[in-house]
Amino acid sequence: MSNLHPAIARVTARIVENSRQSRRAYLDLIARAADSQIDRNTASCSNLAHAYAGALDDQAALKRARGPNLALVTAYNDMLSAHQPYGAYPAQMKLYAREVGATVQVAGGTPAMCDGVTQGYDGMELSLFSRDVIALSTAVAMSHAMYDGMALLGICDKIVPGLLIGALRFGHLPAIFVPSGPMPSGIANKEKQKVRQLYAEGKASRAELLESESASYHTPGTCTFYGTANSNQMMMELMGLHMPGAAFVPPGTPLRSALTRAATHRLAAIGRDGGDYRPLAQCVDEKAIVNATVGLLATGGSTNHAIHIPAMARAAGIRIDWQDMDELSAAVPLIARVYPNGAGDVNQFQAAGGMGYVIGELLDAGLAHRDILTVASDDLAAYAREPGLAEGELAWRAVGASGDPQMLRPVADPFQPDGGMRLVSGNLGRATFKASAVTPDRWTIEAPARVFHRQEDVIAAFAEGALDRDVVVVMRFQGPRANGMPELHKLTPALGVLQDRGYRVALVTDGRMSGASGKVPAAIHVTPEAFGGGPLALLRDGDMIRLCAQTGVLETTADLSTRTPALVPADPGGTGRELFAMFRIHADGAEQGASAMLATAGL
């Protein structure tokens, strides 16, 4: 690609070199899987009878084995608003498949938990490791070896990474992610944030808070702020694993149905026997992983992907680390501001030009790899357009200029010159700082530490006025091996209030904050984690901490060399947490993807 930015080329080349052995081992595995794939025409009749017994409307077609049989792996449940629309998808997609001589079977389901429901409660400690469970569930679904392609139905935080990790182990098959789209916009995001902070100060009632929250999260569809769920959809577009422009089309609309139909037809066409073979293993290569990372940086996406991208890449034999991501961030400008980084939500982002505009800008500036194999084309430029209906038929059209310069800007006139997701490091470890969500005057915080082990204790200290000062709140023993690395958004309103009162405030934690972390500066995912003797375990109240996104520093002036690590809080169990002990014991570090499954598999 002649106009590729030199930093993108350099980092990609390093990833290729660092991945040489592991990528070759992965592709060899997939080649063996392709060679040994069951031919249903010669499989045991008993096996086939078991596989086809439940497919009442498609038994005859399956027995003839004349068309592809597509696996549908679904994360449907009706407790997650984003996944509720998936309940209708199997019946719809079976009809769409029959139109092109194919069949669809629901191969299996995966769990899909909502961090918004478990936020601040014990269930959140299962959240990150649910990604491993989802990957394992996907592998179980695909283990029946009756399929010629995979339709992956998932949207939210751990679900898309888990589905992709599991599907990559069957990378000889094509795969398409089929989203369902965001809910309509509710109340303004700044109004929602205001009520949360008023409630934290005791100036709004619980009834007022619930009314505000319900006006924001109010109907089926993905939450409309730009957190991990919507960052997932952005990445699937930039990796070419959606139909072009599918990410942010609302559920229950004719255009959404047309895109789901097109995805089903396309999946039937790109199998090994269809003349346009596009196996997942070839689609997800080093360039696709770099594209996903570039998209994350250009749009100010979720910091959870500092964990998920390395994990997804590992499943394809690709090695990427935070240094790679930091170097990409320095080269990629921020061209989107979507709440919590801006005022508008993903529906407004879509109306302003959405992913078609972003991809077009990145390609024109040489900031993304054009020459990747996508499910739709051999050129990512097919994704620099937006879908629509012309006389009832699906068609794609040019996007044009940004429809809202407060939401989307060209690369030549960005919101800020870099991607705003920075590596900070020093004698307290390595961590991620999401500068795109924080005003530049807050990029450097130097203040004494106040050390906590539980979110509830931070809230109590805030309520007592004990944090009314310049302070770095240290939340430790929140890493993957300690308690599963929960998100800590329960802290956000209180810390936001302190900041609004004029104090210099920051959070340092080995836990997570994700894409909704907002305006408070935070060093998150600190690795090595406190559990096992990481530096955070040596900190004491009053130690001076310096956190600087500008210079990439996370350090203390305290002498830690003679200190004994703090005692690890006892695991209370309950809420199924004891069942996840094996995941905690075997988990690797956040920078490697915080996965027990990948670590024990030797990937």
TrEMBL record:
It catalyses: 6-phospho-D-gluconate = 2-dehydro-3-deoxy-6-phospho-D-gluconate + H2O. One of its GO terms (biological process) is D-gluconate metabolic process. Its cofactor is [4Fe-4S] cluster. [4Fe-4S] cluster binds at residues 156, 223. GO terms for molecular function: 4 iron, 4 sulfur cluster binding; metal ion binding; phosphogluconate dehydratase activity. Residues 68-381 form the Dihydroxy-acid/6-phosphogluconate dehydratase N-terminal domain. InterPro entries: 6-phosphgluc_deHydtase (IPR004786), Dihydro-acid_dehy_C (IPR042096), DiOHA_6PGluconate_deHydtase_CS (IPR020558), ILV_EDD_C (IPR056740), ILV_EDD_N (IPR000581), IlvD/EDD_N (IPR037237). Keywords: 4Fe-4S, Carbohydrate metabolism, Gluconate utilization, Iron, Iron-sulfur, Lyase, Metal-binding. GO terms for cellular component: cytosol. Pathway: Carbohydrate metabolism; Entner-Doudoroff pathway. Residues 407-594 form the Dihydroxy-acid/6-phosphogluconate dehydratase C-terminal domain. PROSITE patterns: ILVD_EDD_1, ILVD_EDD_2. Binds 1 [4Fe-4S] cluster. Its EC number is 4.2.1.12. Belongs to the IlvD/Edd family. NCBIfam families: edd. Catalyzes the dehydration of 6-phospho-D-gluconate to 2-dehydro-3-deoxy-6-phospho-D-gluconate. This is Phosphogluconate dehydratase. It comes from Caenibius tardaugens NBRC 16725. The gene is edd.
